[in-house]
UniProtKB/TrEMBL annotation, chain A:
Keywords: Cell inner membrane, Cell membrane, Membrane, Sugar transport, Transmembrane, Transmembrane helix, Transport. The keyword Cell inner membrane applies. GO terms for cellular component: plasma membrane. This is Xylose transport system permease protein XylH. Pfam families: BPD_transp_2 (PF02653). The gene is gguB. Part of the binding-protein-dependent transport system for D-xylose. Probably responsible for the translocation of the substrate across the membrane. InterPro entries: ABC_transp_permease. The chain crosses the membrane at residues 23-41, 53-73, 103-122, 129-149, 169-189, 210-228, 234-252, 284-305, 317-350. The keyword Transport applies. It is found in: Cell membrane. It is a multi-pass membrane protein. It comes from Candidatus Thalassospirochaeta sargassi.
TrEMBL record, chain B:
It is a peripheral membrane protein. The gene is gguA. The lineage of its organism: Bacteria, Pseudomonadati, Spirochaetota, Spirochaetia, Spirochaetales. This is Sugar ABC transporter ATP-binding protein. Gene3D superfamilies: P-loop containing nucleotide triphosphate hydrolases. The keyword Repeat applies. It comes from Candidatus Thalassospirochaeta sargassi.
Length: 385, 507
């Protein structure tokens, strides 16, 4: 009986695996777009509105990117809204009020973000305070610190150079060049990966499917560029999230650090025995989230051309919602960064569509809340089957 | 005696696997019926069919109770017919009292107000019935031993009126011999009162001693049934594995040399929460190339001692470790792993597997750094090395991307072995390497251990099974109540189970 070797047979016929959950959210997104396009008689699906939609989604997307590893770790961080406000406020104070150079202000803001993250990480990892409590405390403390520093005065305007970050556009030509470059890099990575697998005699997915996939991706990319180009070009904001996305995608799919974060989220006890430093990893993840939240804050202040102590309040909840809608398990260990991006886009698509329909703003939160509930319920009911 | 439960031509298919293939099984009134079989033979699947976890639409075939076809939609339907199951993992609430546990979900109340006195009174009756000396209804269940907890779980199940069929899944897996005896006494009492019992177990000694009938499963089929009095243990093993096991334990290799490779000096260990001292001043040395067996009853402090020496933060402890004659500072498992010492846990679920991850990622996580090429993990190398381990250790899995939780216990254990063996290590600590594993997989693990020793690895094996200790070890250390009472030479002396047991019991 022991000669039944399922291992060999199974891996040979490794076929196209479809992450149902991920595609489900993409489908939901498409449906949302169609519904709003119909309801607004087409004014939703125009280059102008879509450009706006993407620009608006960037802030939540950045915050959610930082939040993603925290949740994968099985933790939570409620501080990011406060960190964003603090970072924006610091940049405003240092430049507009004190006339210091822009780069210096940004550096200080990022360091401040990291410091708050380290503070959170210290209490969670080394002192065993539950993350919910530790970061709730920081949320109150650091917003109050900002309020004390600015005396509640809204700082405006932000320096000229910063305004480009939130409101600027790159020329369509640049966009196309970028798209071509991205395609070349993508093709190279794919071809390289494939030939390496063949060299090591490992199974590869069918060439036709890979080609179809590539054509679809390239088509989507150029379609997107065309749409952006027919309004004003690529928003600078999108470049920020794109860079973050690429970094996080790489770190969490291909590095030891990323792998270990998933493992800790899956079973921290086992990881301790396997020689993984859980405390240090937790600390790093919180510090990272602090830096990313600071980036989001600087971006927000540039988009609004002002910084106030009330900025980004409640933003942490949007970030968490984006993660959850994007398929990150609150129990830890499961989720992808592309899911998070889709989650952020879903939230913003609903918000944008409803504003376009002149729906009273309280409705937006009602719908957002219900979507969150349904997304998680859907996920849970699918798992129980 | 009539038949109370009959399963006719049951077939249950999971994607790609026939978990049950045309199974027939019948349970007589008032009998204790053992189900034996290797892991993955289909025992748990049948249990889940019998107690309604899988609704009748999910399998083919008929389930007859008192001769009538019963179609369960969920567990409650089975409970109504008087079927209760005690799972291997107990479902008690550690922070609640004995009384609260007994009555949870079925509290005695007057219009929603709990009648605590009535419940306490009944709890006393149950404690008495179970012969639980020294247990009070107000004690927290978490403070009792596993054996007592199990009995309370049984009491809870039969307290629900009309339990006629009791299913026990591996009830003695973590019980001491004394606790097992107590449990068996209760089960016989139940049988004599007319309850029918299905007893799933790997421990053939227990089956031979307790049960009236036995049915053997193999690869989803029922191989046959027999009256216990008509069958020997060897025949039973033969039926389970489909081959005679003439030699359970592979022959011992060369005598190990005298060179001490690993030494622990003056170890003291306390529990983290209660600060109770569980290991007292233990020193121990292990020679290169040997299998050192560490025996003791539950609570003797073996895991506490060894996992602390390895660097686990489960307990607080101190002591010195010497590795190849030089002091080794162990602040965390990182230091041990760097030196070439690896540890495989006794508690797969809590300290072993990473349930969210695939077989491959579970295999490579510990030595993941050795797969790094520049900055990235070389995933192709990862796949190749994992496939290699899967082949070498005979891990049965659909693919290496299958989630580890979908594997049987024995195969999960092999994945955890692979996690340690994927790099070159010199000392392998195996904590209960065959707990909850079927006979076939056990033998495979013994063979792997022998081969490892042959290739120069030293093994420290903690075990609660005396035959395993005697069959595998060169030297045997025995612990009793936190102290190392003796080290016996299994090669020179003619050790018997009784000799070791005496030392372990502190006689």
């Amino acid at each position: 009986m022991s000669d039944i070797n399922m291992a060999g047979a199974g891996s040979a016929k490794k076929s196209i695996k479809i992450d149902l959950r991920k595609y489900m959210m993409v489908m939901a997104l498409v449906i949302i777009w169609i519904v709003f396009t119909v309801l607004t008689r087409g004014s939703y699906f125009t280059p102008r509105n879509l450009t706006n939609l993407f620009r608006q989604a960037v802030f939540t997307a950045i915050l959610a990117t930082g939040m993603f590893p925290v949740i994968v770790l099985g933790q939570i961080d409620l501080t990011v809204g406060s960190i964003a406000a603090l970072a924006g406020g610091l940049v405003g104070m240092l430049t507009t009020w004190m006339g210091l150079p822009f780069w210096f202000a940004v550096a200080i803001a990022l360091i401040a973000g990291m410091a708050v993250g380290i503070w959170n990480g210290f209490w969670v990892a080394y002192r065993g305070v539950p993350a919910f409590i530790a970061t709730l405390s920081s949320m109150l403390v650091f917003r109050a610190v900002l309020l004390g520093m600015t005396d509640g005065i809204t700082i405006s305007p932000m320096p000229e150079i910063l305004k480009g970050l939130g409101a600027g556009f790159l020329s369509p030509v640049f966009g196309y060049v970028l798209a071509v470059l991205a395609c070349v890099v993508m093709l190279f990575i794919q071809w390289n990966g494939r030939s390496k697998k063949i060299k090591m005699n490992l199974p590869t997915s069918s060439l036709i499917i890979e080609i179809i996939k590539t054509i679809l991706t390239v088509g989507l990319l150029f379609g997107f560029m065309y749409m952006m180009a027919s309004y004003k070009g690529i928003p600078v904001a999108l470049m920020i999230i794109l860079i973050l996305f690429v970094i996080f995608q790489y770190v969490f799919s291909s590095t030891v650090f990323g792998r270990r974060i998933y493992a800790i989220g899956g079973n921290a006890n086992a990881c301790q025995l396997a020689g993984i430093n859980i405390k240090a990893s937790t600390m790093i993840v919180f510090a990272m989230n602090g830096v990313v939240a600071a980036i989001a804050g600087i971006f927000l202040s540039s988009r609004l051309n002002s910084a106030s102590s009330a900025a980004a309040s409640g933003a942490e909840l949007d970030a968490i919602a984006a993660c959850v809608i994007g398929g990150i398990s609150m129990l830890g260990g499961i989720g992808t960064i592309s899911g998070v991006m889709i989650g952020a886009l879903v939230i913003q698509s609903i918000q944008n569509g409803m504003s376009l329909l002149d729906t009273p703003s309280f409705w937006q939160n009602i719908v957002k809340g219900l979507v969150l509930l349904v997304a998680v319920w859907f996920d849970i009911s699918r798992k129980n089957k | 005696m009539g038949t109370i439960l009959e399963a006719r031509n049951i077939t249950k298919i999971f994607p790609g696997v026939r978990a049950l293939d045309n199974i027939n099984f019948s349970l007589g009134e008032g009998e204790i019926h053992a189900i034996c079989g290797e892991n993955g033979a289909g025992k748990s699947t049948l249990n889940k069919v019998l107690c309604g976890v899988y609704p009748h639409t999910d399998y083919e075939g008929d389930l007859l109770i008192d001769g009538e076809v019963s179609k369960f939609k969920h567990i409650a339907d089975a409970e109504r017919k008087g079927i209760a199951i005690i799972h291997q993992e107990l479902s008690l609430f550690n922070l609640l009292s004995v009384t609260e546990n007994l009555f949870v979900g079925h509290e005695i109340n007057n219009g929603g107000i709990l009648d605590k006195n009535a419940m306490a009174k009944e709890a006393y009756k149950w404690i008495d019935w179970l012969n639980l000396e020294g247990v009070l209804p107000s004690m927290l269940v978490g403070d009792l031993g596993v054996g007592k907890q199990q009995l309370i779980e049984i009491a809870r199940a039969i307290r629900l009126t009309g339990v006629r069929i009791l299913i026990l899944d591996e009830p003695t897996a973590s019980l001491t011999e004394k606790e097992t005896e107590l449990l068996h006494g209760i089960l016989m009492k139940l049988r004599d009162e007319g309850t029918s019992i299905i007893y799933v177990s790997h421990k053939l000694d227990d089956v031979m001693e307790l049960c009236d009938k036995v049915t053997v499963f193999r690869d989803g089929e029922s191989v046959g049934s027999a009256d216990i009095k008509d069958i020997t243990q060897d025949e039973l093993v033969g039926m389970m594995v489909g081959r005679e096991i003439s030699e359970m334990y592979p022959v011992m290799g060369e005598l190990p040399g005298d060179e001490v490779i690993f030494e622990m000096k003056n170890f003291n260990v306390r529990e983290r929460m209660t600060h109770k001292q569980v290991v007292k001043d233990v020193s121990l040395s292990i020679r290169k190339g040997e299998i050192f067996g560490l025996y003791g009853l539950v609570g003797a402090g073996r895991t506490e001692l060894i996992s602390t020496a390895y660097g686990s933060d489960r307990y607080i402890g101190d002591g010195q470790v010497f590795w190849k004659g030089k002091p080794l500072k162990v602040k965390s498992p990182v230091d041990s792993l760097k030196a070439g010492i690896a540890y495989s846990t006794e508690d797969r679920k809590v300290y072993g597997i990473i349930p969210t991850m695939s077989v491959q990622k579970n295999t490579t996580i510990q030595f993941i750094k050795s797969f790094v090429n520049f900055l990235s993990i070389d995933k192709n190398l990862e796949v190749t090395r994992t496939e290699e381990m899967v082949d070498n250790l005979g891990i049965k899995t659909a693919t290496i991307e299958t989630k580890i939780v979908n594997l049987s216990g024995g195969n999960q254990q092999k994945v955890l072995l692979a996690r340690n063996l994927i790099s070159d290590i010199e000392l392998l600590i195996l904590d209960e390497p065959t707990r909850g594993i079927d006979v076939g997989a056990k033998q495979e693990i013994y063979t792997i251990m022998r081969e490892l020793v042959k290739s120069g690895v030293t093994i420290l094996m903690i075990s609660s099974e005396l035959p395993e200790i005697l069959g595998m070890s060169d030297n045997v250390g025995v612990m009793h109540r936190g102290r190392l009472t003796c080290v016996l030479d299994n090669r020179a002396e003619n050790l018997t189970q009784e000799m070791i047991m005496e030392k372990a019991a502190g006689i």
